[in-house]
Hints:
Blueprint: H1 8-18, E1 23-26, H2 33-44, E2 53-56, H3 60-74, E3 78-82, H4 84-91, H5 93-100, E4 105-111, H6 128-131, E5 147-150, H7 157-169, E6 175-181, H8 182-186, H9 209-221, E7 225-229, H10 238-249, E8 253-256, E9 270-274, H11 282-286, E10 289-293, E11 311-316, E12 333-336, H12 339-352, H13 358-382, H14 392-402, E13 408-413, H15 418-425, E14 433-434, H16 444-454, E15 459-465, H17 466-471, H18 474-483, E16 489-494, H19 499-508, H20 513-517, H21 530-537, E17 541-545, H22 551-563, E18 568-573
Parallel strand pairs: 1-2, 1-3, 3-4, 4-6, 5-6, 7-8, 7-10, 8-9, 10-11, 11-12, 13-14, 13-15, 15-16, 16-18, 17-18
Bound molecules: thiamine diphosphate and magnesium ion.
Thiamine diphosphate (TPP) binds near residues 465 and 471.
Amino acid sequence: MTERYYTTSTAFLEALAEAGVTYVFANLGSDHPGLLEAVAQARAEGRADALPDIIVCPHETVAVSAAHAYAMVTGEPQAVLVHVDAGTQNLGGGVNNAMRGRVPVLIFAGSVPFTQNGELPGSRTEFIQWIQDVRDQRGILRNYVKYDNEIRTGTNVKQLVHRALQLARSEPAGPVYLVAAREVMEEPLRPYAVDPGSYSPVAPVALTREVTAEIATALAAARHPLIVTSYLGRDPSAVPSLVTLAELLAIPVVEAMAYHVNFPHGNPLHGGYQYHSVSQNPLLAEADVVLVIDSDVPWIPAVNRPSAGAAIYYVDVDPLKSQIQLWDVPARRFATANSKVAVEQIAAYVRDNDLADQAAVSERRAAAVARHQRALAEQEAAEQPEDGVITAAYLTACVRRLLDDQDALILTEVVTNSRTVTEHLRPNRPGSVLHHGAGALGWSGGAAVGAKLACPERTVVSLVGDGSFLFSVPSSALWVQRRYGTAALTVIYDNRGWAGPKFSTLQVHPDGAAAAAGEFHASLEPAADLPGIAVAAGAGFGATVSDPAELPQVLKDALAAVHGGRSAVVSVQLPSF
Ligand SMILES: Cc1ncc(C[n+]2csc(CCOP(=O)(O)OP(=O)(O)O)c2C)c(N)n1
Ligand SMILES: [Mg+2]
């Protein structure tokens, strides 16, 4: 029997598969012959099933965003393969998003060969291998990864991969980066195995009994307790636990810069959404005890903060925000804990010690019900189209109705329309709306690919700004969506420009020369044919709509195209900002 083909590349890919990586989102280069040969040899030997599938991504933004969304949906990290320093740089904001969004992703890039005279298999053969020889390739990503290392030999590559993924998955989760030169990836090896079971992520952390008692007692004794959260819903099973705690004491829950469904919109204790807040939130102003759980920016203190006397408790996987340079939320207690575990502990303590003052709970509940009904009535009123113009609220209501009977997964990247979109989607189901959780636009196109691969049975819908759509490299994203049968519906909130930078300028210079001139260099007129770009790249349906009466039917036709297996992109013309 001939000896099995087995190199560092084979072992690397095997380790990924053993660790649960199903897909390698790849953009290839001269650094990857070892990996491509390993895949081909495995196929020839009938062992292709032991390796992950390769998804070709013509832009790295699409690759990393796909891996990001896949991990958000499943909790399972995927791999991204890029070309030396150049491909690493092209990952750009996508790595930033994965890091800030606490999402595990394993990124691998080749580094240039370290021999040049043919001393070893893989030695330099192309001029670019001198040009791409930089001082510190790993430094490109060091601000944005939890761990970076170089694979120096195949003999322990499996351990490195499993350790990297263990770090990536342990809370706070995040991206990790491995590099290796061609000679190392070509190294012949004896096949070997490691036990993936011995690299599980760190177990969730609980509150101590003392801190549980302190927080439970403070919340139960408060007149106006409040919970603020941004990403507790990253574990959908944590949401019912939060609902139980909130209902036990009738505590309103405010979602701040939410990028998951943290609390059902329809629950009367939902205290609303805070995004780019420009005014004081009354619930925050009246609160005497605030539990912040899983949030980076619970409020923006210059415009919106709790009262000076409020007792704040901060529970988070990283309550001191060690990855943020200036961060200052004065709290009475900071505690490291998994949010689901923590809210269950606090609720159990309240119940076991009969701490709930039922009269106060009934009073707060009645106030919450009235507040919630008022908010709903205001939202309903805002959903009517205005004088033949499609507003963001009306559009979102149409999308909500369109998806009423669908098992939909909605990805949002709508910047200045974030609050409107979340309010009018009225999300109730944990895990049904996702956002990258960070600041680098251009996620949604690739994210739709990852989301669809993660849950092929669900209808994937991206709601995006026109600027964000262009950032997501639609020529690449729509092609990947077609090639791999991951059809998605994209609805563009098209205000023909970047409202965000304009609003930022007005916040700092409300009466300045830019405001007086009305020039913010944020217009994207003359408008590009965005659905045309999508159709040229691979979408099966593209349309631009500006008549409110036509909108529901256009959205239906677009959804039908998606159910028929082809992506659809609809540009919805909103008023210019
Ligand atoms: C990669 C990246 N580049 C630039 C920015 C700065 N930025 C913030 S909002 C914005 C405009 C986004 O436009 P669009 O998606 O149309 O949303 P709108 O502001 O119109 O609501 C820009 C350019 C960013 N966040 N990310
Ligand atoms: Mg815009």
